[in-house]
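Usage

Read records sequentially. Each one opens with the input sequence:
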Amino acid sequence: CIDDRLWIGSSISGIGAIDAQLNPAFSATKYFNDYLISYVYKDHEGNHLFCTFDHGILVAPDLRVSDVEPQLATQSITRFCSDKNVRLYLGNQKGQILVRENGSYAVVSAQGDKQIETLFFWEEHAKILCDVQGFSLLDLRTNRLTNYPIGSLKDVVPLHRNRLLLAFNIGVFFMDYDEKTDKVSFSNALLQE
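and closes with the structure output:
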């Protein structure tokens, strides 16, 4: 019993809580439906910790917030970035890039060759750099994805408006952007392995 709530784990998956009147303690009747919960603990900061079989410990700072947004439950999100305004871009295991805007989701780029591991929003030029097909630039104004066969993108560091430092599996490169022609060029920053 935690905070006068009795936590009841399902024999299949998920966990729920009831109050002293046997009513559901929260609007969600069951939490963590994809996990078999073995124990619930509340720490001194008010976080609820849920021990699971096979998935470690889940930490929930606020039980009034859903554990998984229903629209994303089947998306297997691997990375995300924001455009600093209202859009959230999400990469998934299928290699797709999704966008969340005004509470709804849409696919921005079709299925890729592998899961998205790197996603970077380049604010100055409304482009997303990602590791689709090794390395690609997604122009958010035209929704055009352009692939550059350099290597697999691992990380991005903005240096100034038209220059980025890119880490690939084969080395580190500068990427320069020409705003007039909308073209990019690459030069070695460090020696390749």
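Summary fields computed downstream for this record:
- The longest strand covers residues 153-160.
- The two ends are 57 Å apart (CA to CA).
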